[in-house]
Amino acid sequence: MGALAIVAGAPLLLGAADPAAWTRAQAPFPIAGPITYVGSEGIAAYLIKTPAGAILIDGTLAENAGMIGRNIVAAGVRLRDVKLILVTHAHFDHAAGVAALKRATGARVVAGVGDVRALETGIPPGETNYGVIRFPAVTVDRGVRDRDTVTLANVTLTARATPGHTPGCTTWTMRIPARPRALDVVFPCSVSVAGNRLIGNRAYPGILGDYRRSIAMLGTLHADIVLPSHPELADVIARGRRRAAGDATAFVDPALLPGIVAKAKAGFDADLAKQAR
């Protein structure tokens, strides 16, 4: 569909307030099976190749859309062959680039039903202590609920609703055929509080219960490989270097997700106690 154009004009919290790594270029690298990292150094985007095209998870910042497009091509996939863009949640640092990438690829956008309105208006949901950070609006082609599946050729991803961080926060899971056994992959949506108002959130009154249920549900998942939206949570970049150096199992770490969930729960409890005071 032609060259990738970046949409400007939406007010974003960029510059000194955000880590430089969020917009720092990162060369794409293979992770496991059909999965390739195509995001920036500080915010993740994942490409999943299939015989019928590719699936992209998240678009990161609007400023990163061009880089992600180049990374997709460098990974051996034409932009027009990206058929689906899955969104983990409707915050500017993960969804702002989706509109430009949808135009460049013609892909269908899939997101949790609770975030559809936010994505289509460019206004994030809920109330936070840092105000409203808008992002380019994008049409959502399909809203998914817990345990809905998305299939392209031989790859199926399952949506697990993990609301709290946003109402439609969606964790995606898939399985990679491998020997001696298949590998379970989890792309967890964030369960960090990250400035969300937990008490008296008029725009999202059910936020407390959603967080608690989502943290508990994530704790029940088995993950051989964990690929979060913020790569530092799972040392994704460092693991990529290890894999490039010949460690074929660099990303396999079944203890990683339980550790992430435990830290998230501790952080949630601390934030709730602080806000209650």
UniProtKB/TrEMBL annotation:
<dbReference type="InterPro" id="IPR036866">
    <property type="entry name" value="RibonucZ/Hydroxyglut_hydro"/>
</dbReference>
<dbReference type="InterPro" id="IPR050855">
    <property type="entry name" value="NDM-1-like"/>
</dbReference>
<dbReference type="Pfam" id="PF00753">
    <property type="entry name" value="Lactamase_B"/>
</dbReference>
<protein>
    <submittedName>
        <fullName>Subclass B3 metallo-beta-lactamase</fullName>
    </submittedName>
</protein>
<dbReference type="InterPro" id="IPR001279">
    <property type="entry name" value="Metallo-B-lactamas"/>
</dbReference>
<feature type="domain" description="Metallo-beta-lactamase">
    <location>
        <begin position="42"/>
        <end position="230"/>
    </location>
</feature>
